[in-house]
Amino acid sequence: MLITFAEIDGFKNLSEISFVPDKKYNIIVGANAQGKTNLLEAMWILSGCKSFRGSKEKDYIALDGNRMSARIKILDSVREQKIEFDMSKNANKVITLNGVKQRGSRSAFDVFKCIAFIPDDVDIIKGSPEKRRNFIDMAYSQLNPSSVVHLNKSNIVLNQRNALLKSIMQGRDKPDSLEIWDRQAAAEGAVISYMRNDYVKKINSICGSLYRTISGGSEELELEYRSNVYKQADFDTPCGDEAVKKYFDKLRESADYDIRTGTTHTGVNRDDILIKINGVSARDYGSQGQIKSVALVMKLAQAEIFMKKSKDAPVVFLDDVMGELDENRQRFIFDIIRDMQVFLTTPNESAILPEIKGKILRMKEGRIL
Predict the structure, then answer these.
(1) How far apart are alpha carbons 369 and 366 in whole angstroms?
(2) CB-based contact 97:108 (threshold 8 Å)
(3) Distance between CA 40 and CA 225 in Å, rounded?
(4) What pLDDT does 281 receive?
(5) What is the DSSP string of 129-141?
(6) What is the pLDDT of residue 89?
(7) How far apart are CA 42 and CA 205, in angstroms?
(8) What pLDDT is recorded for position 231?
(9) Rounded CA gap, 296 and 206, in Å?
(10) How confident is the model at residue 65, as a pLDDT?
């Protein structure tokens, strides 16, 4: 998969950006706060994903601006397609795919696949369980876009259930009204649990091999899915009526406690992914260097899994991560992503391996010089 053309205007500090990327390496150079990361972010949101920086949509438009637009053309193994994102301060966003207005961002997610490496990736390891769940859910959804439906419905059901719990706690509703939401939560939660377990198994084997290489064979990395509902042995049988019933029964068991506290304590919203180095929690005991290495191999494993499943390689965004790595680790990364189109940002192009040659995009004050 390749980005063959990009045009961005009014996104944060970006102005009148238009360029034809190199098929291999695109090195975006500039001092801090010149728009390098904004350029990656503007292309990233065209994948249908939320900003990798956590930006809210209302912040996409510059403070002194009235509208923003971002357009790319992408070429996959079948054809070239065009994705457009337009938004003004006084109107809703408009997403079009090949000139046809879309009802949401789902269509873009199905079409444009990309993986971003950013400094905040370390939060996947040392951050909250939600960070790890989000990483697994995003990575799996890129392989199987239909899973987004289950994730979205599960979130809706959970919000409705939590609202009802508070209402019951305040005496405005009866506890019996909870069952209908529990059945829906169980149906969606069972699918998501099996989905997460399946992906963690896939990524665990690849991460183990990559981390063994990057640590010189001295350390072992292990990822383990920790379900709030199921034991690991439960996943030996396919996801079916028995799995849904088990999930439903767990919800019913915790219903009284949930009502007293006004929130749901059972289900996929409480899952975690344990990350261990030599059998010890990386989150609790990993050094800064170990945590950075783990985050790196998890993203590389995500790219490798996608490559094995899809005919098209994902586009890779490397946001200011290469300068912190020595030559050996840079070569390790580029060996994994050698068949992918790469966009990388750096304030100092001399920090990049000399053999990494491609198009240089120099940025200043939100423009490509």
Answers:
(1) 9
(2) yes
(3) 31
(4) 94
(5) HHHHHHHHHHHHH
(6) 84
(7) 33
(8) 95
(9) 12
(10) 84
Residue 307 structure tokens: 């490559």
Low pLDDT (below 50) residues in the chain: none
Contact 194, 239 (CB under 8 A): yes
The reported pLDDT for the residue numbered 201 is 95
> DSSP H helical segments within 215-277, as ranges?
241-253, 255-261
CA atoms within 13 A on the CB side of 357: 2
- Cβ(345)–Cβ(28) under 8 Å? yes
Residues 6+ apart with CB under 8 A from 195: 140, 144, 147, 150
Asked if residue 223 lies in contact with residue 273, where contact means CB atoms within 8 angstroms, the answer is yes
DSSP states along 313-356: PPEEEEES-STTS-HHHHHHHHHHTTTS-EEEEES-GGGS-TT-
Q: Is 92 exposed, middle or buried (0-12, 13-18, 19+ CB in 10 A)?
A: exposed
Strands 315-319 and 114-117, how do they pair? parallel
Alpha-helical regions (H) of 45-178: 106-111, 123-126, 129-143, 147-169
- The DSSP bridge pattern shows strands 80-88 and 17-19 to be unpaired
Q: Are 240 and 100 in contact (CB under 8 A)?
A: no
The pLDDT score that the predictor gives to residue 132 is: 96
Alpha-carbon 364 to chain mean position: 28
Q: How many helices (H) and strands (E) does the chain have?
A: 11, 15
Spatial distance between the Cα atoms of 48 and 96, rounded to a whole number of angstroms:
11
pLDDT of residue 239: 94
What CA–CA distance (Å, rounded) separates 368 from 14? 9
Provide the pLDDT for residue 203. Answer: 94
Instruction: Report the DSSP beta bridge partners of residue 82.
Output: 73
